[in-house]
Amino acid sequence: VLTEQEVADGWQLLFDGVSTAGWRGYNQDAFPQSGWGVADGNLIVMASDGSEEGMGGDIVTESLFSDFELTFEFLLTPVGNSGVFYRVVEDPEEALWTVAPEYQVLDDSAYVAMGTMDMHTHLTGDNYDLQSAVVRPSKPLGEWNQGRIVVDGTHVEHWLNGQLTVEYELFSPEWEALVAESKFGPYSRYGRAMEGRIALQDHGHEIRYRNIKIRPF
């Protein structure tokens, strides 16, 4: 629920704690029939085989947002992997990650320990595949983390547990260079939209989200 002050300040709930109202599948007309659920006030992506799009696939808000402050809480499970995307413009021919920036949500320690890939720019709070967080204030498994994303025109900030992890300017020479050198280089629509949906990623691992709210401005 929102407090009276939050309502006065313009906050809106994106998840009511009891239903999937306001969400549907990416490039879909309805909410996925499997792979996601609601329990104990949590919006849960179910574990499958750890592959992208898992059992249910990614989900997006029905509403569009341009400039906003978004806050959310997430609870990781071992080897958990997910992400929060913003200004998502759906494309039936493209996967979610090719069109919009991502706030990484990850069991950092597990993937670092695997040693199978360079995790620089791939950890919780990062601007996925573009920028590494300047601090790592993640809480241990079993504890809730709070994420925060601020998007104001071309300025973007990622926050984790009250600390700024990443900030950048869309379309700046620095950003353009990072994109060109990343996995997103071949995708001309990546990060170009000034308005779009909020999305949560199904990467085949159980992740719980709650207290998802947004303040457009």
Layout of strands and helices, then pairs:
Blueprint: H1 4-8, E1 12-13, E2 23-25, E3 36-39, E4 42-45, E5 59-61, E6 68-76, E7 81-88, E8 102-106, H2 108-114, E9 145-152, E10 155-160, E11 163-169, H3 173-181, E12 197-200, E13 207-216
Antiparallel strand pairs: 1-13, 2-5, 3-4, 4-13, 5-12, 6-9, 6-13, 7-8, 7-12, 9-10, 10-11
Characterization of the model:
- This protein is mostly beta strands and 217 residues long.
- The protein contains three helices and 13 strands.
- The strands form two sheets. Strands 1, 3, 4, 6, 9, 10, 11 and 13 form an eight-stranded antiparallel beta sheet that branches. A five-stranded antiparallel beta sheet has the order 2-5-12-7-8, with no helix packed on it.
- The chain is globular.
- The chain starts with a helix and ends with a strand.
- The model has no long low-confidence stretch (mean pLDDT 96).
